[in-house]
């Protein structure tokens, strides 16, 4: 079965603290994983994808096939990072399955 | 960057009527467009995949006769909610894949549908 799980619905951290948003997936093929972010009253936008291995806004994510995880990390959270974060899995035919999302709140 | 627009941004309709939502890729040609539904404080649920010139592929549990999808051109897909009921009230979001790009999906701003 194709599935994406994000165990934390809500996550609160203090400004400057490290943050990790967890994501696990279930997929029989070779996974292509993404993190999307949705700021308040804005459209969904791509944050990063595992293929590019880039760092966006200080966020990084490493695909761990052994643990079927793709956790999102940032060493020092900023207030502007407060948003809804969705982990997503791209399957065949370019279909994207979204996880339930984690609402990140950075406390000043 | 690539932009996807949706029209209208919000619509209120009476129960039993139909409403059409447009999704346009403004500066690129979209090989494929997707339609999602998002309930309050919940994730996006894929409803259907729309390819230009062919019939849409619906996800399990999505009524194809209720949610009519037409992908008439490489820049336009429409979702028509037929005989709408209050339970159809939701946030509908489309996305499009850039034909020339790396296959990244670009999302529209969404359409808020309220059925009274």
> Helicity of chain B, in percent?
under 10%
The span between the termini of chain A is: 40 Å
Number of strands of chain A: 11
- Detail the poorly predicted runs of chain A: none
Specify the biggest β-sheet of chain B.
7 strands, mixed
Order of helices and strands of chain B: EEEEEEEEEEE
Which chains make the largest contact?
A: A-B, 16 and 20 residues
Oligomer: heterodimer
Count of DSSP-assigned helices of chain A:
0
Helical segment count of chain B: 0
Q: Gyration radius of chain A, to the nearest Å?
A: 13 Å
Mean pLDDT of chain A: 91
Question: Can you walk through the features of this model?
Answer:
- The complex is a heterodimer of chains A (108) and B (116).
- Chain A is globular and about 40 Å long.
- With 108 residues, chain A is mostly beta strands.
- Chain A is built from no helices and eleven strands.
- In chain A, the strands form three sheets. In chain A, strands 2, 5, 6, 9, 10 and 11 form a six-stranded mixed β-sheet that branches.
- The termini of chain A are far apart.
- In chain A, strand 9 (83-90) and strand 10 form a beta hairpin.
- In chain B, strand 7 and strand 8 (76-81) form a beta hairpin.
- In chain B, the strands form two sheets. In chain B, strands 2, 4, 5, 6, 9, 10 and 11 form a seven-stranded mixed β-sheet that branches.
- Chain B contains no helices and eleven strands.
- In chain B, 34% of the residues are buried.
- Chain B is mainly beta and 116 residues long.
- The interface between A and B is medium-sized, with 16 and 20 residues.
Short summary of the structure?
The complex is a heterodimer of chains A (108) and B (116). Chain A is mostly beta strands.
Helix and strand layout, with pairings?
The complex is a heterodimer of chains A (108) and B (116).
Chain A: E1 3-5, E2 10-14, E3 19-21, E4 24-26, E5 32-38, E6 45-49, E7 60-61, E8 72-74, E9 83-90, E10 96-98, E11 102-107
Chain B: E1 4-7, E2 10-13, E3 19-25, E4 30-38, E5 44-51, E6 57-58, E7 67-73, E8 76-81, E9 90-98, E10 105-107, E11 111-115
Parallel strand pairs in B: 2-11
Antiparallel strand pairs in B: 1-3, 3-8, 4-5, 4-9, 5-6, 7-8, 9-10, 9-11
């Amino acid at each position: 079965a194709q599935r994406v799980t994000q165990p934390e619905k809500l996550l609160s951290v203090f400004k400057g603290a490290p943050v990790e948003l967890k994501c696990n997936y279930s997929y029989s093929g070779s996974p292509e994983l993404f993190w999307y972010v949705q700021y308040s009253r804005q459209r969904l936008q791509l944050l990063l994808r595992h293929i590019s291995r880039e760092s966006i806004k200080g966020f990084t994510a490493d695909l761990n096939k052994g643990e079927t995880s793709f956790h999102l990390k940032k060493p020092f959270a900023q207030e502007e990072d407060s948003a809804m974060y969705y982990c997503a899995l791209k399957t065949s035919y370019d279909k994207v399955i979204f996880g339930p999302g984690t609402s990140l709140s950075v406390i000043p | 960057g690539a932009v996807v627009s949706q029209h209208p941004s919000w619509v209120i309709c009476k129960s039993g009527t139909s409403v059409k939502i447009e999704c346009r890729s403004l500066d690129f040609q979209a090989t494929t467009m997707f339609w999602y539904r998002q309930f309050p404080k919940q994730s996006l649920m894929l409803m259907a995949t729309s390819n230009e010139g062919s019939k849409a592929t619906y996800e399990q549990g999505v009524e194809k006769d209720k949610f009519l999808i037409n992908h008439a051109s490489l820049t336009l897909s429409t979702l028509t909610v037929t005989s709408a009921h209050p339970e159809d009230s939701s946030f509908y979001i489309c996305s499009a894949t850039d034909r020339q790009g790396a296959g990244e999906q670009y999302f529209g701003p969404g359409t808020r549908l309220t059925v009274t």
